[in-house]
Write a structure and sequence with these properties.
420 residues; alpha/beta; Lyase, Ornithine Decarboxylase, Chain A, domain 1; TIM Barrel; 2 domains; nine-stranded mixed beta sheet; 12 helices
């Protein structure tokens, strides 16, 4: 469920007209719904209540401080992959003791930053990283908790760029090497080997990969415990898919029901790292039509948002629903209509600059406002200044009110760190 709905063929976010937002802050602009974020977080917690998990929101999905503050107020933890994300979490009021730190290339400075703060857990992705964390912890004369990221060699049936659980992935250790690393635990005087981490990918829309992966991880844990390893935490990662198109995703209850028989008997403290599942459908990208252009047999709807604002269509071949904010009919009513087809493209000088290709689309004109749906996750966080384009504004809606939570960049912002 999300809180972006058409009322009399006009799109609202909660009780705010999106046309009013665009008139106030301009376009392109990301708009987030607080009610949707809180709703999805609550549904996830309810579905996994049997595990009493530490839910650590994945900051890389959407890292705006105002959004992180919502999660901090909910009392959840945070999954981070950089020192910059740790800094954001703390500035938003998050607790260091509820941070889990993943990533294959942590710097010594980032390791020290996290160790000094006393974070909940380091997810360790290589033997070399174990040695680096040990060296930093020894320098600080402290102990840190670590969980080995174990690669169960499972194909999650998602885009290859977001598949992380196969043997050839850069992430984690295969089962054999992970076992060898646990056998060396006595060599690390400042590390507590308390957990196992398994994250197999992102935008996964089937329970089967989770069941297979966690079954293998469960067997691995039991094998390690038979050798005297004490493991109290199982981090099952995230990656639950959302609907970019109607009907493609499962509910939190369906994921929880499938995972429970595999995970519950292990008796471990469960950590989860949802990101897209909570915020993906909590945001839209507003953009205006600049021109409608016919060339050969193609129609192009040129808009003021571009691949630097939302790179997912170009990078992942992702299909975001796009529709006019003031619509002739709703997207659901469009099913079965014989609409002309068009590419929705941006102004960036790349052939890969598109938001949609060969899409059935109603007639639009210069100045019309469009909404790109399901843009809450990996939209703004992956944006750039390519072609010297200022990044978009971010807006948070709370019932009847909205506010800018990140102003639109200016040309001075783009050059402010440079010198002649």
């Amino acid at each position: 469920m999300d809180h972006f709905k058409y009322r009399d063929l006009e799109l609202f976010c909660e009780d705010v007209r999106l046309a009013e937002v665009a008139e106030s802050v301009g376009t392109p602009a990301y708009v987030y719904s607080r009610a949707t974020i809180e709703h999805h977080a609550a549904r996830l917690a309810e579905a996994f209540a049997w595990a009493d998990p530490l839910i650590c929101y994945s900051v890389k999905a959407l890292s705006n401080l105002a959004v992180l503050k919502i999660f901090a107020a909910l009392g959840v933890g945070f999954d981070v992959v950089s020192g910059g994300e740790i800094d954001r979490v703390l500035k938003a009021g998050g607790e260091a003791s509820k941070i889990v730190f993943a990533g294959v290339g942590k710097s010594d400075a980032e390791i020290e930053q996290a160790a000094r703060l006393g974070i909940h857990l380091f997810t360790v992705e290589s033997e070399a990283e174990l040695e680096a964390i040990e060296a930093v912890a020894a320098k600080l004369d402290t102990r840190v908790r670590v969980a080995l990221r174990v690669n169960p060699d499972v194909d999650p049936k998602t885009h290859r760029y977001v598949s992380t659980g196969k043997r050839e992935s850069k992430f984690g250790l295969d089962l054999e090497r992970a076992g060898a690393a646990y056998a060396r635990r006595g060599e690390f005087a400042h590390l507590d080997f308390v957990g196992v981490h398994a994250h197999i990918g992102s935008q996964i829309t089937s329970v089967d990969p989770y069941v297979v992966a966690l079954s293998r991880i469960g067997g691995f844990i039991q094998a390690q415990e038979a050798t005297g390893v004490e493991i109290d935490t199982l981090d099952i990662g995230g990656g639950f898919g959302i609907f970019y198109r109607i009907g493609e995703a499962l509910t939190a209850k369906e994921f929880a029901k499938a995972i429970r028989p595999v995970v519950e008997p292990l008796g471990k403290k469960i950590v989860m790292e949802p990101g897209r599942f909570i915020v993906g459908n909590a945001g839209v990208l507003l953009t205006r039509v600049a021109f409608v252009k016919d060339s050969g047999d193609k129609r192009f709807i040129v808009v003021d948002a571009a691949m630097n604002d939302l790179i997912r269509p170009s990078l992942y071949q992702a299909e975001h629903r796009i529709w006019p904010v003031l619509a002739p009919f709703t997207p659901e009513e469009a099913e079965g209509k014989a609409l002309p087809r068009a590419d929705v493209v941006g102004p960036v000088c790349e052939s890969g600059d598109f938001l949609a290709l060969d899409r059935p689309f109603p007639e639009v004109r210069r100045g019309d406002l469009l909404a790109v749906f399901s843009a809450g996750a990996y939209g703004m966080t992956m944006s750039s200044n390519y072609n010297s384009r200022p990044r978009a504004a971010e807006v948070l809606v709370d019932r009847t009110r909205f506010r800018v939570v990140r102003r639109r960049e200016t040309y001075d912002d783009l050059t402010g760190l440079e010198s002649l």
